[in-house]
Amino acid sequence: MIMHPAIKLRHIRAFLDIAANGTLSAVARAQGITQPALSRTLAELEDLLGATLFLREKRRLVLTDNGVLFRRHAAAALQMLEAGAEALHPSGHGGRLRVGVLPTAATRLFPRVALRFRHAAPRVTLSVETGPHSHLVRLLRDGGIDLMIGRMPAASDMAGLRFEHLYEDRIALVSAAHHPMRGQPVAQVLARCPLILPPADALIRRAVDEYLLARNLASVQPAFETAALAVGRGILAGSDALWFISGGVVEDELDRGDLVQWETGAGFLSGAVGMTRRQAAPGQPSLELLARLTHETVLDGHII
């Protein structure tokens, strides 16, 4: 089947934006059009394709199987068009680059890289997606993002992807600086104080669970589960809780003295941080520039 000639680039961009956001209202605001107009654009695309691309679940639009399939190809096609436009003006580095950033890289590494990138390629818009590992890996596979920066995915998630190592990031155990049990054995403190653990699906959760199991603390029920800096920092500030979290998330808070790190005595509480991208992705000058600047930022010693 040949693609219907009435399908325009505006249909493709609208579809990809809705797929990434999940709501019509936010995309309509971002595009400067009304929600009914955006809804008509989506309906036109589905009619022209002869397929339903989204299902409505409560207030969100969720991709159907056909939508997932079309998104993968549409994103790749749009990326190749943008790469072609860039190739005509290689010194300008225009366009948009979509990057997924995991919590461990979001606080210190990526902001520094983003500022360097802005200086080197001021005509490129960095569109940044955050969220849990599973969400970003799915976006990467479907073409919703061009690159993911953060901890190395599990081996089961690496099919069709490639990982470039940047550095090792420790899992830190932190608390507020004024914690009343500072100086006491960490095992006793963990048994008596509320714990904040990474979410169950976080890459670092297994290592934390193994650490607690080795110290006969596996039965301790966590009070909270989060990898969000704002949430964890707020809970620590108002309690005597302790938080297991990637060191990169709280590096600035530790440097300022707002949080303190507890010695765990476990060298295995660390993991690789790097850049993950699709193996078959076409070359993109702005993407290669971002990758180079990321490596340079790490080598300059501003991260570790």
Question: Which helices and strands, and how do they pair?
Answer:
Layout lengths: L8 H13 L2 H8 L3 H15 L4 E4 L2 E4 L1 H24 L6 E7 L1 H4 L2 H12 L3 E7 L2 H10 L4 E5 L9 E16 L9 H7 L2 E3 L7 H10 L9 E2 L3 H9 L4 E5 H10 L2 E4 L7 E9 L6 H15 L5
Parallel strand pairs: 3-4, 3-5, 7-8, 7-9
Antiparallel strand pairs: 1-2, 5-11, 6-9, 6-10, 6-11
Helix pairs in contact: 1-3, 1-4, 2-3, 6-12
Describe this structure as you would to a colleague.
By secondary structure, the protein is of the alpha/beta class. Among the domains are: 1-84, Orthogonal Bundle (Arc Repressor Mutant, subunit A); 169-271, D-Maltodextrin-Binding Protein, domain 2 (3-Layer(aba) Sandwich), CATH 3.40.190.290. It is built from twelve helices and eleven strands. The strands form two sheets. Strands 3, 4, 5, 6, 7, 8, 9, 10 and 11 form a nine-stranded mixed β-sheet that branches. A two-stranded antiparallel ribbon has the order 1-2. Helix 6 (109-120) crosses helix 12 (285-299). The longest helix has 24 residues, at 65-88. The protein is elongated. The termini are far apart.
Task: Give a nutshell description of this structure.
The protein is an alpha/beta fold and 304 residues long. Among the domains are: 1-84, Winged helix-like DNA-binding domain superfamily/Winged helix DNA-binding domain (Arc Repressor Mutant, subunit A), CATH 1.10.10; 169-271, D-Maltodextrin-Binding Protein, domain 2 (3-Layer(aba) Sandwich), CATH 3.40.190.290. The chain has helices at residues 9-21, 24-31, 35-49, 65-88, 103-106, 109-120, 133-142, 186-192, 205-214, 229-237, 247-256, 285-299; strands at residues 54-57, 60-63, 95-101, 124-130, 147-151, 161-176, 195-197, 224-225, 242-246, 259-262, 270-278.
